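User: What would this chain look like folded?
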Amino acid sequence: MRGPGLLPAQEHCRSTRAHGTPAHDYPTRVAAQAERANLASLDLPDLIAGTRRTLSHLRSEELIP
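Assistant: Here's the prediction, encoded as structure tokens.
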């Protein structure tokens, strides 16, 4: 579900831009996996806020209780 301001665009997420690595390319080295996990954790506040905005929007449209 995409809507104005509901979820951040992929371009704005740090974890998908890490070193130019697409989100679906998974590192095999342990250090690279840890780095990727740390970068992904930086996106959590934005993703949580986007989820809350989405839920609020769905409630305002009476699509969920």
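The first helix runs from residue 14 to 17. If you want, I can go into more detail on any region.
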